[in-house]
Amino acid sequence: MPRESQDSIRARAIEWHIRLRDGDDAAWEAFAEWLAEDARHAEAYDAVEAADQEIDSLLPHVVIREAANDLDAPAEPPTRRRWRLGLIGGSVAASVAAAVVLFSGPAPSRYDVVTAPGERRVVALDAATEVTLNGATRMTFDRNDPRFASLASGEALFRVRHDVRNPFRLEVGANIVEDAGTVFNVVHERDEVRVAVAEGKIVYNPGVRAVSLDAGQSLVDRGGAARVKVSDVPVAAVGSWKRGSLVYAGAPLSRVADELGRALGVRIAAAPSIADRPFSGTIALDGSGVGQLRRLSPALNVVVEEGPDGWIMRPTVSAAP
User: Which residues contact 222 (CB under 8 A, 6 or more apart)?
Assistant: First the structure.
């Protein structure tokens, strides 16, 4: 099979960047397969992603002067202007309506990636390092430092290329997760951090407070707690949301509600009277959205009601105190 040209790879990377804006699970799986085919694929996609993020960050400072032959066309608002992509003579050209773009100040190296509830997104940091963001997640990356990431809120699954001389470091609030292995999942919500390891090893808060986790271990760090709680976790349960299932062993219903909300794209809360009630079991997500909540109600032993701010899990009559 002839080797792909760099122009062909770049064009395909742009196609994926556009397609994944509204991509379903099948699209994301196909994209992951494309990344795995050739190390150059991830490099090309990362370059396209970085260029798009750079354009977004500069838009507030942009003055656009349209070419003379475009003067009769209505101008798009700067906040909505995007790359216009074309193939010219087999090479890729990115242009903005033949505009002259003037801006002040250097482009910032850090950029945010945000997913809406129910949305997932994969960020390839290098050929062997990728981060999959679950719904309702906000992260910061650095286009000049692929060994850095920051999780402001939400959940993400990390598959990291290990480099003992240059470890991958994830900021989670005031905490640090340092890679010493390969695959791990991190959740940051309110004043709680949860980390679980599927492969290899991580170090939580390297230094005096360091806690090491091996594959099959997890930790919970709650604000105000004197100690970090470490426990065992089935390896298959780590990042299982990416495969369409949520696995619990004595998790409070408040956490189940939060994670269902991230996965289904709706706001869900557990009533205070049952928020701490433990739940054990596996929830298989079928993509049916809110309708799935009612089907899950018997298994969770709750009644799900729609309220002004979303959906609420309430105790059944038999379970009510």
Answer: 191, 192, 229
In angstroms, the CA 304 to CA 316 distance is 9
| Residue 124, phi-psi category: left (phi > 0), alpha (psi -120 to 50), beta (remainder) | beta
- The whole-angstrom separation of Cα 131 and Cα 177 is 14
Asked if the model's pLDDT at residue 152 lies above 90, the reply is yes
Q: Which residues are within 8 A (CB) of 115 and not within 5 positions of it... i.e. 6 or more apart?
A: 121, 133, 134, 135, 136, 137, 138, 154
Contacts of residues 174-183 at CB distance under 8 Å and 24 or more positions apart, as own/partner, are: 175/204, 175/205, 175/221, 176/204, 176/205, 176/206, 177/202, 177/203, 177/204, 178/202, 178/203, 178/204, 178/206, 180/212, 181/214, 181/215, 183/157, 183/158, 183/159, 183/238, 183/239
- The SS3 call for residue 137 is strand
Of the listed ranges 42-46, 72-76, 239-243, 301-305, the least confidently predicted one is 72-76
Phi-psi region of 274 (alpha: psi -120 to 50; beta: other; left: phi over 0): alpha
Strand partners, 311: 268, 306
Residue 57 pLDDT level (bands cut at 50, 70, 90):
low
**What is the pLDDT averaged over residues 46-64?**
60
CA angle (215 as vertex; 186, 172 as ends), nearest 5: 20
Give, to the nearest 10 degrees, the angle between helix 25-37 and helix 6-19: 160
User: How many CB atoms neighbour CB 5 within 10 A?
Assistant: 11
Element (H, E) at 88: strand 84-88
Q: Which residues contact 191 (CB under 8 A, 6 or more apart)?
A: 222, 223, 224
Mean pLDDT value of segment 163-171: 92
Total count of residues recorded for the chain? 321
The answer to whether 64 touches 73, Cβ cutoff 8 Å, is: no
Q: Who has greater pLDDT, 320 or 118? A: 118
Is the pLDDT assigned to residue 87 strictly greater than 80?
no
Strand ranges for 168-294 from DSSP E: 169-172, 175-179, 183-189, 192-199, 201-204, 211-214, 217-222, 229-232, 245-252, 268-270, 278-284
